[in-house]
């Protein structure tokens, strides 16, 4: 394959996955809004708990094995079958253990039968999700992401169709879990058929001592980072359910889902810049510093208007999308939106640490903040409920931001004059946008305010020279390859 063809292939794959990820998040958010509006806060709490609980255990099935499959399989494509068969064996074993662990723990925690049944079905979905994750991993190793992108979009669309049908047909709550289970199973069938018939791989687990001995040491840092990150992200939902009840978790699920839906902004930027960070760290430290500072700038430029507008119009958004039953979600949403600023920067900082051979530092930091986050949730949830969980998330995101910044500064100098100028420009831009959006909301409603606020922000970016035409072209050149 020529260099041009390879670059074209990478560009196509990136386009496919970016489109699929954005569409998936949009459909997922709209679907969740429909579900929450129709089943009420208590059932939303049960539904969200079941998904969050089993999402933690998914990481124990995969343990970073898919990352290793992609990385090592891409190096030596002739060995993809050996890696896939060995990893499949390990995942079947881990999947069985994880399902048993889910069964034991959910019964030990003493939840009612309906909640336990939701968890059981979600746990089966977890096993299918882990299987098609590795199947798509083999396709990534072959450099083909279009089938995965299609699978992601169709699967999410099918969940939406089935779920809304079950919902408006007044089926019991358990059927909303079937709306995940059925597409996940079909995704396994779809992905395995491509792997078997197009790439002629065998869907057969195999014990290969040599392969496993090679894989396991590589997996450990991936596994630890994945476990810490997953527990850090979802432990608040589990603790809220147990310490505050389903209704409070239902209130918290709304701001949590809104914050998660906006993750495509930093994810897209990190996907484009991570390879460049690695390249510049090895060959050109000045370019690394430039790319790092520019990534902070463009992330803030893109993310901050979302944060400010959601913060300002949080009550209107909650009532319009989720009804007045969820008014107790407004304050947690405001707090989480402040934390989102640091969470998004942490995507950049984590990417820099990993790209610059500081993955052990990154894993350690996630582990430390996981412990702090759990302790804060245990202290704050009993008295403050969803607000307490939001405060814990804000403190955790800020703590991760501060620690990451400290370690990055040891090998990458900060241009404080650049950052001070950026913050001043953004402050003026956002202040004007905030004021105009607030006034428009009072007189014309929040839908018009959203539109006018967005236009005001774009105009002010150029008025304050936060963004110039030259800088846009520079960033496009930085990420184009």
From TrEMBL:
Where in the cell does this protein reside?
Answer: Cell membrane
Q: What is its main location?
A: membrane
Q: How does it sit in the membrane?
A: Multi-pass membrane protein
| Repressor as UniProt keyword | no
Record protein name field? Uncharacterized protein
User: Which Gene Ontology cellular-component terms appear in the entry?
Assistant: plasma membrane
InterPro entries xref list: Poly_Biosynth_Transport, Polysacc_synth
Q: Does the keyword Translocase apply?
A: no
Kindly list the residue ranges recorded as spanning the membrane: 51-70, 82-106, 118-137, 149-168, 174-199, 211-232, 258-277, 298-322, 334-356, 363-381, 387-406, 418-436, 442-463
Identify the keywords attached in UniProt to this record, alphabetized.
Cell membrane, Membrane, Transmembrane, Transmembrane helix
């Amino acid at each position: 394959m020529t260099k041009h063809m390879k670059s074209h292939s990478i560009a196509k794959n990136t386009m496919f996955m970016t489109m699929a990820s954005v569409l998936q998040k949009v459909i997922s958010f709209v679907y969740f809004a429909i579900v929450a509006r129709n089943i009420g806060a208590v059932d939303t709490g049960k539904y969200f708990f079941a998904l969050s609980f089993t999402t933690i255990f998914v990481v124990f099935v995969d343990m970073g094995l898919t990352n290793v499959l992609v990385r090592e399989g891409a190096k030596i494509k002739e060995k993809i079958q050996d890696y896939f068969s060995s990893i499949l064996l390990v995942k079947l074993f881990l999947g069985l253990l994880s399902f048993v662990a889910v069964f034991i723990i959910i019964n030990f925690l003493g939840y009612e039968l309906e909640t336990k049944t939701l968890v059981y079905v979600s746990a089966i979905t977890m096993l299918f999700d882990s299987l098609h994750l590795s199947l798509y991993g083999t396709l990534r190793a072959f450099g083909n992401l279009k089938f995965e992108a299609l699978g992601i979009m169709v699967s999410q669309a099918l969940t939406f169709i089935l779920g809304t049908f079950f919902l408006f047909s007044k089926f019991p709550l358990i059927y909303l879990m079937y709306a995940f289970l059925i597409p996940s199973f079909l995704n396994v069938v779809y992905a395995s058929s491509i792997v078997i018939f197009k790439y002629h791989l065998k869907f057969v687990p195999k014990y290969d001592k040599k392969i496993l001995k090679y894989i396991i040491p590589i997996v450990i840092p991936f596994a630890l980072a994945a476990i810490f990150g997953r527990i850090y992200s979802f432990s608040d939902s589990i603790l809220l359910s147990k310490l505050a009840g389903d209704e409070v978790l239902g209130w918290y699920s709304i701001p949590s889902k809104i914050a998660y839906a906006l993750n495509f902004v930093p994810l897209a930027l990190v996907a484009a810049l991570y390879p460049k960070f690695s390249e510049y760290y090895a060959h050109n430290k000045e370019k690394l510093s430039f790319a790092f500072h520019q990534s902070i700038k463009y992330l803030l430029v893109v993310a901050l208007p979302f944060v400010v507008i959601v913060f300002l119009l949080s009550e209107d958004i909650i009532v319009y999308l989720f009804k007045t039953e969820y008014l107790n979600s407004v304050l947690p949403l405001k707090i989480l939106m402040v934390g989102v600023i640091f969470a998004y920067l942490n995507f950049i900082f984590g990417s820099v640490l990993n790209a610059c051979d500081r993955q052990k530092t990154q894993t350690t930091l996630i582990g430390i903040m996981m412990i702090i986050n759990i302790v804060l949730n245990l202290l704050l949830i009993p008295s403050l409920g969803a607000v307490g969980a939001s405060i814990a998330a804000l403190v955790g995101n800020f703590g991760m931001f501060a620690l990451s910044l400290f370690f990055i500064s040891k090998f990458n100098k900060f241009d404080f004059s650049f950052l001070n100028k950026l913050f001043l420009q953004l402050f003026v831009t956002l202040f004007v946008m905030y004021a105009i959006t607030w006034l428009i909301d009072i007189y014309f409603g929040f839908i018009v305010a959203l539109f006018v606020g967005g236009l005001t922000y774009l105009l002010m970016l150029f008025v304050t020279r936060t963004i110039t035409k030259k800088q846009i072209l520079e960033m496009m050149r930085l990420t184009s390859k």
